[in-house]
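Task: sequence design from structure.
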């Protein structure tokens, strides 16, 4: 049998290497701490300069979408918590709201407000994990201890609410899984009261730090045009100057009740993406402060039958997850199980921008650029 020909990818600039030397190809990952999971990056180098890259994924593939087609709507709900496992609450909100739209179920106001509070706390927790690990990748050790200090307080609230800290299954289709515990409001207020000062501490360590600025300013620039063309969403898109946030464009949960700003950058580099996420944490705190003062009374679950059989049809619903647009496309054939489920995870789409961002930079910058995208391989591979 004839051998299968080897596939060679040609990158612009490969013909003009230093001293006419051939390009070097090295693998970064999948066993590498700075790839934030089992991501294999094939780097094409001219000395220390990156002239091209290929991201090889699939090491964490678990067939989540196919599993959904063999489970009832309720049974599949906990599976989504395992995709972006550092933002499980957000995953659950997106899925529950998609099924509720398919069922045409109205969620009670109390459930909507509590959902909003928990989801914004999850956004803060996700950004804290990103900030701590991103700083650690670049060489700053102290921020990860500071960030985990505050993240721990959020996880304690989640644990008191539903017993879980990481893969937090907080919601039910139609509303909430549990009523909030006694002292929930006080715990949230206590955390929020001091958190603004904590963000100032992070910024005092990094924002004007000479090494941090040198390692992030002008690194991994992504223009607004490229970001839109590549389908990038979330903080990565907003740092490129595009003011787009689903919480404002298509409000869901209780976001239409609260005032908050959409932070945007101007240069689209790693430094801007850092600044945008820092401001997003402040805006999440602002939303929670408004919501916690006015939680409506009433039921926490809408009128949902024990056996869910949506009418035949299809729905797409998306939310603004910490990493960008998280969307669920569900097709119903009128049975208790979805006919088809397709998930649009932000990490998977945003990873497309990596090659555009990394070209022309040094190998040391690759670490900073992977970190600034804020990927989780659980939702990249699904």
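Answer:
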């Amino acid at each position: 049998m004839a051998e299968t020909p080897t596939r060679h990818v040609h990158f612009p600039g490969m013909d003009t290497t230093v001293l006419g030397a051939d390009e070097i190809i090295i693998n970064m990952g999948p066993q590498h701490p700075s790839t934030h999971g089992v991501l294999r990056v094939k780097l094409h180098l001219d000395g220390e300069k990156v002239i091209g890259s290929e991201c090889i994924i699939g090491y964490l593939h678990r067939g989540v979408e196919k599993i959904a087609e063999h489970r009832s709507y309720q049974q599949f709900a906990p599976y989504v918590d395992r995709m972006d496992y550092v933002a499980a609450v957000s995953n659950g909100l997106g899925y529950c709201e998609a099924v509720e739209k398919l069922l045409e179920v109205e969620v009670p106001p109390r459930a909507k407000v509590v959902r909003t509070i928990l989801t914004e706390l999850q956004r803060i927790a996700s950004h804290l994990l990103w900030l701590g690990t991103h700083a650690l990748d670049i060489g700053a050790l102290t921020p990860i201890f500071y960030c985990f200090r505050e993240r721990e307080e959020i996880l304690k609230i989640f644990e008191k609410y539903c017993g879980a800290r990481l893969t937090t299954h907080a919601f039910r289709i139609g509303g909430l899984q549990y009523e909030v515990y006694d002292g929930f409001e006080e715990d949230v207020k206590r955390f929020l009261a001091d958190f603004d000062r904590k963000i100032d501490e992070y910024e005092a360590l990094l924002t004007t730090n000479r090494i941090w600025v040198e390692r992030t300013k002008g690194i991994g620039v992504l223009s607004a045009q490229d970001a839109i063309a590549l389908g990038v969403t979330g903080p990565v898109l907003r740092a490129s100057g595009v003011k787009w946030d689903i919480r404002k464009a298509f409000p869901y949960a209780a976001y239409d009740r609260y005032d908050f700003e959409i932070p945007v950058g101007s240069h689209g580099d790693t430094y801007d993406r850092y600044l945008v996420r820092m401001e997003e944490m402040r805006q999440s705190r602002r939303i929670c402060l408004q919501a916690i003062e006015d939680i409506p009374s009433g039921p926490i679950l809408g009128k949902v039958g024990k056996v869910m059989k949506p009418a035949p049809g299809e729905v797409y619903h998306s939310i603004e997850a910490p990493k960008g647009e998280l969307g669920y496309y569900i097709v119903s054939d009128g049975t208790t199980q979805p006919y088809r489920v397709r998930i649009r995870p932000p990490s998977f789409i945003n990873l497309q921008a990596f090659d555009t961002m990394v070209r022309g930079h040094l190998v040391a910058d690759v670490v900073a650029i992977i970190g600034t995208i804020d990927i989780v391989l659980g939702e990249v591979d699904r």
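Residues 114 and 295 are 7 Å apart (CA to CA).
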